[in-house]
Amino acid sequence: MIGPVKTVGIYVEDQEKSVEFYTRVLGFEVRRSLPMGPKANWVELSPPGGQTCLVLYPRALMPGWTELKPSVVFHCPDVEATCEELASRGARVSMPPTPMPWGTFAKILDPDANEFGLTSQPLA
Predict the structure, then answer these.
(1) What is the pLDDT of residues 36-85, one digit of tens each?
(2) What is the dihedral of CA 19, 25, 30, 34, to 10 degrees?
(3) Where does residue 90 fall: left (phi above 0), alpha (psi -120 to 50 degrees), or beta otherwise?
(4) CA dihedral defined by 109, 113, 114, 115, rounded to 10 degrees?
(5) Distance CA 47, CA 83 (A)
């Protein structure tokens, strides 16, 4: 039986800078950080209480990373308030909260221009 999604890879230039962004700006928590080589760690982060982790994977270790873009959407009950809060902490909002037939949707960027969606669409 297949369970919940375990990890989603996010390709980053600087792991330390990205960990700072995800923890300080987005409020994620580091779930795991293990040595992965001389200049990298296996770093998993998630929103508090989340089942799925983002893995901040060093671009230098992944040939062809430019072709590998994540498509990750996070649920949040109030997209407008979440965007305001995240922007006040330094997140870039690439698409402001926009009403859609299924709920409000917005996009934010991390320091490496990885784009993440935010939606108020009810959870299944």
Answers:
(1) 877 889 999 999 999 899 999 898 888 888 888 777 888 888 999 999 99
(2) 0
(3) left
(4) 40
(5) 15
